[in-house]
Amino acid sequence: MRICNLASGSSGNCTYIETRNTRILVDNGKSLSYIFDKLNELSVPPEKIDAILITHEHSDHIKGIEKFARTYHTPIYAHMSIREIILHQIKIPEEQYNFFDSNFKIGDLDIYPFPLPHDSKYCVGYKIAEEDAVVSICTDLGEFSDSTFEMIKSSALVYLESNYDPEMLMSYPNYPPFLKRRINGNHGHLSNLACAKAIEKLVKSGTRLVVLSHISEHSNTVNLAVGTVVNYLESKNIKPNVDIKLDIAHHEHRGTIFRITPTSQK
């Protein structure tokens, strides 16, 4: 399996995942030209994308889907709970829609959606597996619950939200109080420290690679996110680059290309 985040943040989100026979995007909140360019960097023709999976209906996750799906006739998948919203917001031919309420399969990928606490109509994360090679995408959540942990534990690779620094959030002048409360609430986003505590649990479950994702452009910095996570893990005797590798998903350029190989292909 080859995995690469193409963009992550309030300006748009998209992650690419492929196997030998299957190519998917998780979300698409960027322009057609942006995604075309990033897929071109990966030598992936956009018309070869087999599906776009939607996490939730917020614009930074779906605003690029309609034009992409219309241009390349790409099927889209979304949870049944947001069916009416998606039908209203993404105008594509009816046969391209696929609404689910349980696990499903696309090509040789097994898809396990799970609910996340976020202030949308309905938000899911995804555990995506090619045999025993597993990647999980877990962003846009206000708290990292036991049920979320049970779902994604032992994943080889996890894209995990590290959205904000509390001091930066509260001092940012362009956010009104209600928005700060929303972000900081248990249906908002994960702080850097909450992300660090989640990583502590994941490391103990066997995860060895986490990509800090959805880092806010206004209430966080990469250095703050990484520093908070590293300091916390070290305080728990977890050594970055030894016990866990950390990486970053960026706002405006693609991230690192990762490869996870199923046991049967080794």
Cross-sheet strand order for the largest sheet: 6-5-4-3-2-1-14
Radius of gyration: 17 Å
Percent range for β-strand residues: 15-25%
> What proportion of the residues is helical, as a percent range?
25-40%
Largest sheet: 7 strands, mixed
Question: Which SSEs are present, and which pair or pack?
Answer:
Elements lengths: L1 E6 L6 E5 L4 E4 L5 H10 L9 E3 L5 H4 L2 H8 L3 E4 L3 H7 L7 E4 L3 E3 L2 E7 L8 E7 L2 E6 L7 H7 L4 E5 L4 H6 L5 H8 L7 H14 L3 E5 L8 H14 L9 E4 L8 E3 L7
Parallel strand pairs: 3-4, 4-5, 5-6, 10-11, 11-12, 12-13
Antiparallel strand pairs: 1-2, 1-14, 2-3, 7-8, 8-9, 9-10
Structure characterization notes:
With 266 residues, the protein is α/β, with parallel strands linked by helices. Helix content is 29%, strand content 25%. It has helices at residues 32-41, 59-62, 65-72, 83-89, 146-152, 166-171, 177-184, 192-205, 222-235; strands at residues 2-7, 14-18, 23-26, 51-53, 76-79, 97-100, 104-106, 109-115, 124-130, 133-138, 157-161, 209-213, 245-248, 257-259. The chain has a 7-stranded mixed sheet, with helices on one face. It has a 7-stranded mixed sheet with strand order 7-8-9-10-11-12-13. Helix 8 packs across helix 9. The longest helix is centred in the last third of the chain and has 14 residues, at 192-205. The radius of gyration is 17 Å and the shape is globular.
